[in-house]
Structures are given as structure tokens and as C-alpha cells.
Write a structure and sequence with these properties.
This protein has 14 helices and no strands. The chain has 412 residues and is mainly α.
Amino acid sequence: MTPRRAGLLQATLTLLAGGVLAQALPLLLGPWLTRLYRPEAFGHYTVFAAVAANLAVVACARYEFALPLARSDAEARDLMALCLRVLMTMTGFTALVAVGLGAVGAPAHWAWLPVAVAVAGAVQWLTLWATRGERFQALSASRFTQYGGGALAQVAGGLAQLGTAGLVIGPVVAGAAALGWLRKPAPPGGWRALWQVPRAAWWAVARRHRDFPLLNTPHAFAGALQDTLAVALVVAYTGDAAAGFWGLGMRYLKAPASLVGGAVSQALYPRLVGASPAAARAALRRVMATLALIALPLVLALMWFGPDLFAFAFGERWRAAGTLARALAPYIGVHFVASPLAVVTLAWRAQAWALKLALVGQAMFIGALATGLHYGGLQGGAWAVSAAMLLYFGWYFWSLATWRNIPDVDAA
């Protein structure tokens, strides 16, 4: 095994170990949460979380993803200053949205929207800062604090009978705590110095990395918007309780992808940036094959035992979520493989292609869901999504595995 392959494996295992702990606690506490909160409360939380994620994913205009590409500490510092300013602007905008929602009589938990966006955006920003420095232990600790702590806080909210607010506040508090792991080391000059970076400096890096807001921001926003629109469609066609089933199902079904995909992508991204075309292509194919071998038994288990597993774990009133899981199993399998691969097109400077393809995929997802909901209810929508996504991701995997225009760092 070459040093680079060994380093990638070690980094992935470090992140995976932290991810296992981070995901294990929420998964173990899930059956308790479903007995503390009704499906309708989960439905309300699912809508809130989808909207917050839609805004948080572009809270820094995706400039944070340029940090691993920065060629000097000075450029990284200027990018950090830029991200800070964009995040503050987005937080202010979200606060205005929350005020508007309150004025039209939205439930009280929507007042937490700007805080949720600010915390989630900061975690994503500083995660890429830690990724640049390959501080994988800090990344693992932050993930455990964010996800494990969020579940514990939600349990506390349920015991206090806070209703939907308990589900909303828990992840916000845990995300703020996770920032403590990601703050060190400080950028050159310290955190306060970010406010002193001249406008000309951070404006220069904004122009240099303009592909990220112009191409990756629409891509990321549209991806998150897919989840928001999906929840809205489920509520419109089948009600709040069904949105709770959808939210719980997606939370558990996507947990393996979040666990493995996050670890793999954080380790893979800096390696692809510095690899030769042949080495980068070989690394990608190994990752895809390994993830496919892991996904297959998960898909088969869901299709065979899904309803009984959900009823046993969460209570009989959640059996419908298990039936939903069975229908979504093929989609979950290909999503598991695709989850860490978004960084590939970032490293290979193929963001324009990725944006176009993603928009096609999102249109297919929403179109299939709407058609299935109309003709077959919640289960019909889920089966239609699985069929459409098998076609879409099949093309996506083939395109990446045979990609030809990989930047040659050595030649440059």
C-alpha cells in the first residue's frame, strides 16, 4: 500500500470512528424519541429542518469549499474572512425571514430559524477549515458532539414536554457546542484579525473562486430545495403525520450515508486535489466499488424486514414508516454510494457539469414523487422515487468512473 493510500485509509477510519459514535447515539435514542414525540411533531420539525438546511447549505456561498484549494496561508486567511462576512449577511437575512413568519402567525419554533442557520453554516465552514488542515480527530469529535449531543438534547426537550420546540432546539445547541472542536488552530493572525482583512484582499479571493457561488451554490441550494419541496408535497398530499413518517424514515435511512459518506468525502477531497489523473480515477473507482458492496446488504434488509423493524424499534404506530423504508430502499442504496462523491467534481473543476446534471436529477426526484403521491399515496411516491433515482445515479456513476478531463497537477 502506497503512503497516500495508507494516509487516505487512516484518515477515513479516524473520521469513521468518530462518525460511528456520532450516529450511534441518535440511532439508539430514536426509539425513545418516537415515544416522547408524536408523528405530527416530527412532521413539523421535518419542515423546519428542511427549510433551515436549505438556507444553511449556502450560508457562506460555498466559499468554504475553496479552503482546501487555497495555495497559501494568506489566501486561506482571506477566504476565512470572506466566509465570515457572507455568513453574517445570511444570518441577518434569515432573521428578517423569521420576523416575517412571526408576523403572519407562524408557530413559535420558527423564531429559532436564524440561530439554526447561523450555527449550521458555521459548522460547515469550520469543518472545511479543519479539512484543509487534515485535523481529522477534531472533525470526529465535532461530529460526535453535534449529532450525539443533538439527540440527547432532543430527549431532554421531550421529557420537558416542549413539543416541536424540543426537536428544534436540541440540534442547534449541540451544533454550537461542536464549534468548540473546530476553532483551533486559529487562522493566521487569530480570529479577530479576520475582521481586519482589507476589503481588497477578501474581494480578490471572492473573484478568484467565483465558481463556487456561481456554480456550486445553485447546485447545493437546489439539492437542499429538493428535500424542502419533497416535505411540502408529502404534507400537501398526505398530511403532517405522513411528513413525520417521511422525516423519521429519511433520518434513519440516510444515517449510514451521512456516517460513511461524510468520513470518505472529508478524507477523499484533499487527496484528489493533489493526485495525478490515473491515481485519482483509480481511487474513485475503489471508493465506489467498496461503497456499493456495503450498500447492497442494507438495501436487501430494508426490503425484506423494513416494516417489522420500524414497528419493533419505534412502536406499532410507526409501522407505516417501515413500509415507506421498504419502498425507498433502492434509492437509499444508490444515494449511499453517491453521498461522498460530490467532492469529486469540486476537485476536478467540473462544477458546471455537476450543476446541470444535479438539476436534472432533482427534477426527476420531485416529478416522480409528485406523480407517485397523486396516483399511489405515500407508498406510490416512494416507489416512483426509487425507480427514477436508479436511472439517474446509474448515469452519474458511469460518468464519474469514465471521466477524462481530470486536472493534471504534476503537469501544471
